[in-house]
Amino acid sequence: MSRHDPLWLRVRSVASVVVVLAAWEAVARAGLVPPLFLPAFSTVVVTLWGVIRDGSLPEDLAISLGRAAGGLTLATLAGVLVGIAMARNRVAHWLLDPFVALGFPSPKIAFLPIFILWFGIGSLSKILLVGFACVFPVAIGTYAAARGINRVLIWSGRSLGASAGVLLGRVVLPACAPRIFAAMRVALPVALITTFTAEMVGGGGGMGATLMYSQRFFESPVVFAYLLVMLAVGLVLDTTMRRLQARSPVLRGDA
Amino acid sequence: MRPAGTVSDAKIEIRGLSKSYSTGHGSLLAIDTVDLTLAEGEFVSIVGPSGCGKSTLLYVVGGFLSADGDVLVDGTPIRGPGTDRGIVFQDYALFPWLTVRRNILFGLERRDVPQAERDAVADRLIGVIGLKGFEHRYPRELSGGMRQRVAIARTMACDPAVLLLDEPFGALDAQTREMMQDELLRIWLDTRKTVLMITHDVSEAVYLSNRICIMSARPGRIVEEFSVDLDRTLPREELVVSEPFNRLRNAVWLSVRRQAVAAAHADPG
Q1: Residue A156 touches partner B, C-beta closer than 8 Å
Q2: CA–CA separation, A250 vs A245, rounded Å?
């Protein structure tokens, strides 16, 4: 087996994770750290199995993923609209550019109190906050994509008889699709972070709320179990998006 | 608008066409008062040194760029791009997210053509360009020559009266380029479309055209014209070694060379 064999690389990544988990287990079992600060990995796994079986984790996960997905969907719709409008219309660019420049680097989570005030403590305020946090990377990615479209693609479309609307739907959007998708991949962790953080701060159920609640009641194994699930969710979703991109000629975007 | 009293069988009339770009240092004249008329069914090539504005001229005729002066097709001034003028670009400009077949169907789907007829046209063109078995491939899976054949088929699917070719074979290797030239020649002899081709390949221009216009370095002007009167029934290997072919090729080459040298002296570096 060669050193660059994909299987070998995978074995190596798994091995390094196993080493860290073993060290964790050893440190906790040896009593070097109080269990409140660091419960043993095996304890965390047992706890994880428990919260899966009693349905509390699946319910929290469904709530959080629903909010993240809802927010990301809103952000994608709005971001694509804003990005393409800015790229293809000068007035739209003048109007929207200052807000994108201001909003992109801003700490979106700081708007949570306002969002709670306006939209309540439930899912709506969180979905909208996630949308707000994710709309900027999507808008900027779409704008860059739409500005960078090879002009001969647009010209080809027009000389083949595409009207303005058809050009937008059948040429501009597909031409931008790979970079829009790449922007969504950037926005996905932002959506998860914003969802979990908003739940931790604002409550209203979900992964973040239970995590915070368990910490208050000194249930460290639950805290760690939820953390592990959060890590896994990010990895699985990002890998899924990467696979999707590799399979789809529209998302892969090669000439 | 056709001036009162003129009757012409001109397919394309370019009158007093100038194009300038604004740059950081003021405006730059790319094309300077070009007049050119193409008769119905004529194959005209424009040859000139690089950067002389010949592609710009083609894009203006395509309706993609605006300019001063008039471009008339069948006596009517053009307003933007139209399906009456099909264009083939050097770098193919295929839609990478569509298969060969869907690329070819793109123009047909924009028109009020019954499904069965669209399929028939696509099937016929895929056969003509010799890509049967490749119709469900994506452009990235094809060689340069195959991509350019798809680009030509996609344009021909709309059956444009005018073909605009922007250095269509410039990105191909020498052997593929010759094969593609022969295919283009066959298509043109079959369909007798009016063709305006931009090229920097003198042999290609002589081999394919009825008429060759030499463009000066920037600002581009048409400085010389050559009519080509060669026996098209001769196979390539006989034609390209024939006396008339080489005499004309050398004359055209010298003319382009003069423009390139003039450009180099005018703009050292």
Answers
A1: yes
A2: 8
Q: Is B77 on the interface with A (CB under 8 A)?
A: no
pLDDT recorded at residue B5: 38
Tokens of A59: 């319910």
Contacts of B107 in chain A (CB under 8 A): 160-161
Kindly list the distances between the CA atom of residue B93 and the CA atoms of A109, A153, A157, B140, B261, in Å, as whole numbers in the listed order: 43, 5, 10, 12, 32
Which residue, among B256, B259, B232, has the nearest Cα to B43 in the 3D structure?
Answer: B232
Angle between helices A56-88 and A207-216 (to 10 degrees): 130
- Nearest-CB residue to B91 (from A152, A160, A174): A152
- Between A and B, how many residue pairs show a Cβ–Cβ distance under 8 A? 70
Ramachandran region, residue A201 (left: φ > 0; alpha: ψ -120 to 50; beta: rest): alpha
**Mind listing the pLDDT tens digit for each residue in B66-105?**
999 999 999 999 999 999 999 999 889 999 999 999 999 9
Q: Give me the pLDDT at residue A3, please.
A: 67
Quick one: which of B247, B191, B254, B250 has its CA closest to B41? B191
Q: Do A255 and B140 touch (CB under 8 A)?
A: yes
Pairwise CA distance, residues B202 & A217, whole Å? 84
**Which residues in chain A (173-202) have CB-CB distances under 8 A to chain B?**
174-175, 177
Complex ipTM value: 0.89
Determine, for residues B154 and A253 on separate chains, whether the beta-carbon distance falls below 8 Å. Answer: no
d(CA A204, CA A198): 9
Instruction: List, in order of start, the domains of chain A with CATH numbers.
Output: 55-252 (1.10.3720.10)
Residue with tokens 């590799």: A246
- For A150, name the nearest residue in chain B, comparing CA atoms only: B93
Q: Could you report the average pLDDT of every consecutive run of 10 residues in chain A (255 residues)?
A: 77 91 92 89 94 95 97 97 94 94 91 94 94 96 94 95 93 94 95 95 91 92 95 95 89 71
